[in-house]
Amino acid sequence: MPYLILFFKGFIIGIGKIIPGVSGSLLAVSMGIYEKSLYYLANFRQKIKESLNFLIPLGLGIFLAILTFSKIIKFFIERFPLITLSFFLGLLIGTIPNLKNKIKFQIKDYLAIILLISIFLILSSNIMLPVFEISNNLSYLWIIFLGMIDALSMIIPGLSGTALYLMLGSYSFILELFSNPFNNILASCCFAIGFLVSFLLLAKLINYLLNKHSHITWVVIISIILFSLIEFIYQIPFNGSIILAIFFILLGIFLVLLTPLE
């Protein structure tokens, strides 16, 4: 796959990572690079050259998107929440049809399990922690944990790291960290340590599950996607114009369908 295309897809994934409710890994699935990414991560030592050729341009795209778009996304969400979140919801919905090619079973056969898992996740998401800020040395252990959460959202399709950060009271902190990573080098290093350790371990685990227990793994993934959609809709401030929200949702869906990502 040409490096420029990988960089572009990584850039899209990076943007998805900093938008509340959007899953970067779900975007990776819809763009056809999710399972390849897991494969190269899980077999890095055996295929060092191929892994680097694939992962470096992809990772650079993700990193630059996070670095450049964090401030922009923060500005639009604060100033135009209805329009911004509605548009991103449309983008998220537009990626879902591409999942059909990945699923090798009838969803209706597992519908009851999917609904039960989704309901459990929705009930769990009502737990909201106080807003996080660095207050002592123990705060840096929490930042390592936040890095692990980010890795989890990168590996599991449909799981939004930003949605989890909102629940943990840490979204504003993470957005500021992404926007200005050199303002607090120690916090950035702690986050990176948590992310890398968790990412490498989870990549092998999910790669194994997709190969050995594909059906049940995708059932859990679909449940998380359904949960993420419901949570995202809940975040949109519909006290504005519902017609405007519908317009931007449809615009987001149209743009994704107009430009197939895979």
Task: Give a quick precis of the structure.
This protein is an all-alpha fold. The protein is built from twelve helices and no strands.
Order of helices and strands: HHHHHHHHHHHH
**Structural shape:** globular
Structural class call reads mainly alpha
Please describe the biggest sheet, giving its number of strands, its sense, and whether it closes into a barrel.
none
- How many strands in all? 0
Please state the CA-atom Rg, rounded to the nearest Å: 18 Å
Question: How would you characterize the overall build of this protein?
Answer:
- This protein has 262 residues and is an all-alpha fold.
- It contains twelve helices and no strands.
- 73% of the residues lie in helices and 0% in strands.
- Helix 4 crosses helix 9 (171-179).
- The longest helix has 32 residues, at 48-79.
- It starts with a helix and ends with a helix.
- The model has no long low-confidence stretch (mean pLDDT 78).
Topology:
Layout: H1 3-17, H2 24-30, H3 34-42, H4 48-79, H5 81-95, H6 111-124, H7 139-155, H8 161-167, H9 171-179, H10 185-212, H11 214-235, H12 242-258
Helix pairs in contact: 1-2, 1-4, 3-10, 4-5, 4-9, 5-11, 5-12, 6-11, 7-8, 7-10, 10-11
Key traits:
single chain; 262 residues; mainly alpha; 0% strand; globular
